[in-house]
């Protein structure tokens, strides 16, 4: 699990990359780009205009998906810092940006398109602005990936917030988890 999510932790910090495991699928994008690029050059003659359009469209869509994965999703890292009471998000373009306070975090399950994933947001506004912290899981009961994610990631986040809430006065709020 540590390699799958690039987990880094210390006594007051916990961080992980929720989409790091998608790196293994990049080879399929490269293969699809090479095949559709080869088809586009092979069918470049005016007689096969329809095949050229289809292969060029596939090439463009595949390159778009590849770039989106490699530039936007895979580099995302969430860092939970107990000492500063912050949850930060790092991307390829932004080194570290505070997205919410650690004691305001709500983690919940979001269902869509036949699957579900864990998301986190700020209390009372988690449905307005939320952040995906897991891949999509299937609806099978006792899914191994789900159980492993809950043990490695969610339990650690919950430990960070419950330890924090025990040191925060009662009127300041606490965290809640719905999993």
Form type: elongated
Q: What structural category arises from helix and sheet content?
A: alpha+beta
What share of the residues lie within helices? 25-40%
Q: Please write the string of helix (H) and strand (E) elements.
A: HEEHHEEEEEEHE
- How far from one another are the termini? 19 Å
Largest sheet composition: 5 strands, antiparallel
**Tally of helical runs:** 4
Question: C-alpha Rg, in Å?
Answer: 21 Å
Strand order of the largest sheet: 1-2-3-4-5
Question: Which stretches of 5+ consecutive residues score pLDDT under 50?
Answer: 167-175
The fraction of residues in strands falls at 15-25%
Number of domains: 2
Mean pLDDT: 84
Tally the beta strands.
9
Give the key terms.
about 180 residues; alpha+beta; 5-stranded antiparallel sheet; 4-stranded mixed sheet; about 40% helix; about 25% strand; elongated
Can you walk me through this structure?
The protein is of the alpha+beta class and 179 residues long. It folds into two domains: 2-18 and 76-177; 23-73. The chain contains four helices and nine strands; from the N terminus they run H-E-E-H-H-E-E-E-E-E-E-H-E. The protein has helices at 2-5, 26-42, 49-73, 144-167, and strands at residues 8-9, 13-16, 77-81, 86-90, 97-101, 105-112, 115-122, 130-132, 176-177. It has a five-stranded antiparallel β-sheet, covered by helices on one side. A four-stranded mixed β-sheet has the order 8-7-6-9, covered by helices on one side. Helix 2 runs antiparallel to helix 3 (49-73).
